[in-house]
Amino acid sequence: MQAQILDLLKELTRETGSSLLLITHDLGLVARYADRVAVMYGGRIVETAPARELYRNPRHPYTLGLMASVPRLDGEAGRPLVPIEGQPPDLAQLPRGLRLLAALPLRHRPCRVSRPPLVDVGRAASQGLLQ
């Protein structure tokens, strides 16, 4: 039933030239229905990209954690799921800097002090600004 409704909504958006905003934790739905994805954590967008690019080349540590936590059909049988370490932040008392610092396996000192800017990875990479 869910797939039928989403297929109908996608068809209607094509016919009318409108957009559909889908908010979900289901990465399978995202892969099937989204053209563009914004990954949020702690009430902020931490990464945005065309869906295919995001799945092919996730850049933000939280996005990498989300992708690693999803079971894969082509994965090793019996392989345990990979959890995202740490706890989500208390939204009533958000820490300074990067809100998911405690949940990140890749911790950078600047992230402890201030929130890094949202960077268009596709544009930055094409201009040689990323290493």
Question: What's this entry about, in short?
Answer:
This protein has 131 residues and is of the alpha+beta class. It has helices spanning 2-16, 27-33, 51-56, 61-69, 109-113, 121-126; strands at 36-41, 44-50. The termini are far apart.
Structure description:
The protein has 131 residues and is α+β, with helices and mostly antiparallel strands. Helices cover 37% and strands 10% of the residues. The chain has 6 helices and 2 strands. It has helices spanning 2-16, 27-33, 51-56, 61-69, 109-113, 121-126, and strands at 36-41, 44-50. It has a two-stranded antiparallel sheet. The mean pLDDT is 76.
What structural class should be given to the helix and strand makeup?
A: alpha+beta
One letter per element, helices H and strands E, the order comes to HHEEHHHH
> Shape from CA axes?
globular
**Helix fraction by DSSP (H/I, runs of at least 4):** 25-40%
Number of strands: 2
- Could you describe the largest sheet, including whether it forms a barrel? 2 strands, antiparallel
Strand order of the largest sheet: 1-2
| First and last CA, distance | 45 Å
Our count of helices gives 6
Taking all Cα atoms into account, the compactness measure Rg is: 17 Å
Query: How confident is the prediction overall: mean pLDDT?
Result: 76
> Which spans of ≥5 residues are poorly predicted at pLDDT below 50?
none
DSSP strand content? 5-15%
Keywords:
two-stranded antiparallel ribbon, alpha+beta, 131 residues, single chain
Set down the secondary structure blueprint.
Blueprint lengths: L1 H15 L10 H7 L2 E6 L2 E7 H6 L4 H9 L39 H5 L7 H6 L5
Antiparallel strand pairs: 1-2
